[in-house]
Amino acid sequence: MTHIVKCNPKSLNPCHCLNIRRASRAITHFYEKLLEPSGLKVTQYSLLRNLELVEPVSMSVLAKIMRIDRTTLNRNMKPLIISGLITANSGEDLRSKQVILTEAGKAALLNAWPLWDEAQASLEKYVGAAELDAFEKLLSKLEALAL
Predict the structure, then answer these.
(1) Which pLDDT score is estimated for 147?
(2) What's the CA gap between 2 and 6, in Å, rounded?
(3) Are 76 and 82 in contact (CB under 8 A)?
């Protein structure tokens, strides 16, 4: 867990939105750096992990679970389908697709999980468990702004 170097906090901008977006990019960069050996981006890891919990599942239901729109889900799924980590087959209704994890997808998750876990632990150590818990509650409150 030596991936985070103690540093001085960055100066804030008067715009709350900009500060949140900059922090989001920094966190994404941090996770992607640690996940790099797995070959997965953090968005791909998240999609695979969510899929693992509910498969087989329709794209609509998976999008709702992940709280993203279907267009974003479809765009994020394409490289995973191409690399053989997931498949999307026609469901009972020809308009819906059932998404499932392949054996290669399960192996990719197993490979990436310790790296993701290390990122989680490093972030908690850096921020502090209590602060991280309070921050996650705040994030939930902020996400509720999107009706």
Answers:
(1) 62
(2) 10
(3) no
Domains of the chain, start order: 41-146 (1.10.10.10)
Pairwise CA distance, residues 100 & 84, whole Å = 11
Compute the distance between CA of residue 74 and CA of residue 70 in angstroms, rounded to an integer: 6
DSSP-derived secondary structure for 70-91: HHHHHHHHHHHHHTTSEEEEE-
Query: Which tens digits make up the pLDDT trace of 16-68?
Result: 999 899 999 999 999 999 999 999 999 999 999 999 999 999 999 999 999 99
Task: Tell me the per-residue pLDDT of 65-99, one tens digit each, with 9 for 90 and over.
Answer: 999 999 999 999 999 999 999 999 876 766 778 99
Q: Locate tokens 């008067």: which residue?
A: 14
Residue 118: CA count within 13 A, CB half-sphere: 18
129-143 vs 103-127: helix crossing angle, rounded to 10: 110
C-alpha to C-alpha distance for 86 and 80, rounded to whole angstroms: 6
Do residues 54 and 62 lie in contact, with contact meaning Cβ atoms separated by under 8 Å? yes
Q: What pLDDT does 113 receive?
A: 97
